[in-house]
Amino acid sequence: MPVTQQLYMFLRSKGFQLLVVCFAVLALIPIFITDSFFLFVFTLIFIFAIYAASWNFLANSGQGSLGHAVFLGIGGFASAIIGGKISIAIIGFLGVIQMPIGALSVLIQVSVLLVGGLISAGIGLLIGLACVRLKAWYLAIVTFGFSVIAGSLSSQFDSFTNGISGFAPTLFVPGGFPFYILVISFTVTSVAVMYLIMKSRMGLAFRAIRGNEAEAKMIGINTAKYKLIAFVISTFFAGIAGGLYVYFIRFVDNSIFSPTNSFLPLIMTVIGGLGTVSGPVIGAIFLTSVGQILTTQSVRQYLSTSLGPFFPKVGYVGPPLTYLIIGVILLVIVIFSPKGLESQFRKFYKYLITEEKGDKTK
Amino acid sequence: MDITAGTIVLTLIWGVAIGCIYMLLATGLNIIFGVMKLVNFAHGQFLMIGAYLTWAISVAAGLNAYIAILVSMALVAGLGVVIERFTFRRVLGTEKLNEIFVSLGLIYIFENAALLIWGDQSQQIVSPFSGLSLNLQSFSITYDRIVAVFVVVAVLVGFGLLIGKTKIGLAMRATSQSNGTAKLMGINVEKICMITFALGSALAAAAGGLYGIIFSFNAQTGAMPTIIAFAIIILGGLGSIRGAIVGGLLYGIAEQMATLFLGGIWSTAVAFALLIIILIIRPNGIFGEKGE
Description:
The complex is a heterodimer.
Chain A: H1 2-12, H2 14-32, H3 36-59, H4 69-94, H5 103-131, H6 136-156, H7 158-161, H8 177-199, H9 201-211, H10 213-218, H11 223-249, H12 259-272, H13 278-294, H14 297-306, H15 318-336, H16 340-361
Chain B: H1 5-36, H2 43-60, H3 65-91, H4 96-118, E1 133-135, E2 140-142, H5 143-165, H6 167-177, H7 179-184, H8 189-214, H9 223-236, H10 241-262, H11 266-281
Antiparallel strand pairs in B: 1-2
Helix pairs in contact in B: 1-5, 1-8, 1-9, 1-10, 2-3, 2-4, 2-8, 2-9, 3-8, 5-6, 5-8, 6-8, 9-10, 9-11, 10-11
């Protein structure tokens, strides 16, 4: 029974234990920090961690997408619309406005999100078919083009999507802490799954393609097939992130297809470390916290009183300044540390270890 | 809206005028690609900066807008030199994705710096011909659009002479053919790259000035034109200047026609649909050389 044996090995492995510890720590954080703002930021961070990890997964196979917001948006719209239909059906069936709380509603919520991811992956397959032959900036521009087209299509079929004015999806699980637990279970599973794929033979093929596509083809890798697989897996997780995002902020409209959302996972991944597992997560933590801290009430007030007078033409100095700083950080990291913060942490860790060894020999 | 022959002719002329601006932008992007093998996704931000500088100069100094364009071209060329020296040169030759990341960082920096300096309200440059238009029997067209076409032609002719007749142009063409061989022939490739980047930025600034005279613009204006310029050079072939000219005209007309027949929200989406179809059939563009 190789499969069960493998599963047994996996359950006993260090990686799995690490996973459980991660999950436990993440789940326990909000118990100690009860502030609702922190819960908000943490939930957002872990939703973006899935999104950034999905982008990283795609980039790891040599495909840099500039239109990942398409899949964030499709996942979001699909799960929100399907969830809305289901909630109407439930209300019609039970004759009550209240949702049935418990295992059933969690099940509905999870399956709605998974269906959103699957629909996103289906569209991802179609778009991926168009993209497998393209390279570097051709791919970047075509994926970007798809995000523009997605926005136009959503406006065109407004009677179905309601994308112009936007709408609020019906949440099946209570918001706040229960939703946070849902998000981190999704995050830990998604990142773990992507990690396992990246470590498998398939992941090796992806890295080979990223290294040199012609050479990968030469040693017998079906590059088109593997690139397509990477595209579908990545878009599946992006769709799930989209569903979680939409249910979390409880609103969805066409602006979800905006370039800002497409660039977000890229910036997070590059800041954290491209091609690594922890990179996107580090980037998501870093960028989301910077963004959220700079937009808090007190910081905003401080910024507009201290720096506001220098820029009289802008109402709020905060947001443009935040993005300006993010741009500078991105440039500095790409130029001076192309492997991202992850490699810096690793260097620092190594430095600490060697220091200890030095002490022992003395 | 009823579509008459007059509206179609008017749309055609509009398409040509807008196409000319895109053409200028695409030519700048194209020479940078041709010589440095670099796609600067922040090229449209140079257009935006160029438009703002033209506006600021014409307002502050009371200069004629068309002369202010020249000043802003020079300033943006200087900015281009700085950007090339401190960002792109450092990642050139590493992974292709790094160039995209650097451009993205530049987009964020330029857009938000412009927002901080010039505010979030849309501006439009006032030219000597503002509000004047040429009235023909069934339609009228503003003088600014006609002048824009002539300015673009003048700039492109000057640019063509620079590439074709001067020593720097020769060096640029040599570098674009083979970087290594150009080095062996004693060409200072780094200097040529810097000049090329400055030239490309100046062309973007010229496009920006004209754009700002015809349309109103804000800090976010740069994003779409970059993508459109890229679409044009893919239509016309990377590195080919004639291709950029033909592509620019075709694109401008197609965009205006799409707006006329399908409505405003489709104007850019149709362009992308066209681009995507072309790239699916020919992954390296219409006239692009086969990679590897």
